[in-house]
C-alpha cells in the first residue's frame, strides 16, 4: 500500500460521494458512514494495508450506489490500494 496513492484515491472517492450525495439519500448515507474513515486516511493515520471494512456499502445491491459506476469504480480502486500487501 502506498499512502500517497491511498490519499489520492480517498480524495477521488470523497469528491464523487459529495457529487451524488445531495441528490441521492443512499449516497448521502454511505458518505456519512465513511467520512470519518476518509478523514483518517487524509490525515495519514492509515499507513498499513488493511481490509476495507466499508466495501459492502458500495456493492451490496440493495441501494442506489450501483447506479453510479464511477463511484463504484472509485470505491474499488480505493479498496484495492488499501488492501495491497495483505
How would you summarize this macromolecular structure in one to three sentences?
The chain has 86 residues and is mostly helical.
N-to-C series of helices and strands: HHHH
Give the amount of beta strand, in percent. Answer: under 5%
- Quantity of strands, as a count: 0
**What is the count of distinct domains?**
1
Largest sheet: none
Count of helical segments?
4
The computed structural class is mainly alpha
Radius of gyration: 12 Å
Separation of the first and last Cα atoms: 9 Å
Helix content: 55-70%
Tell me, what's the shape? Answer: globular
On the 0 to 100 scale, the average pLDDT is 94
Poorly predicted runs = none
Characterise the protein shown here.
With 86 residues, this protein is mainly α. It has one domain (3-83). 66% of the residues lie in helices and 0% in strands. It is built from four helices and no strands. α1 (3-21) runs antiparallel to α4. The radius of gyration is 12 Å and the shape is globular. The termini are close together. The model has no long low-confidence stretch (mean pLDDT 94).
Amino acid at each position: 500500500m502506498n499512502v500517497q496513492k491511498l490519499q489520492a484515491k480517498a480524495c477521488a472517492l470523497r469528491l464523487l460521494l459529495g457529487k451524488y450525495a445531495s441528490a441521492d439519500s443512499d449516497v448521502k448515507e454511505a458518505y456519512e458512514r465513511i467520512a470519518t474513515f476518509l478523514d483518517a486516511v487524509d490525515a495519514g493515520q492509515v499507513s498499513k494495508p488493511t481490509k476495507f471494512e466499508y466495501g459492502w456499502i458500495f456493492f451490496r445491491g440493495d441501494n442506489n450506489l450501483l447506479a453510479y459506476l464511477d463511484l463504484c469504480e472509485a470505491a474499488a480502486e480505493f479498496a484495492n490500494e488499501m488492501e495491497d500487501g495483505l
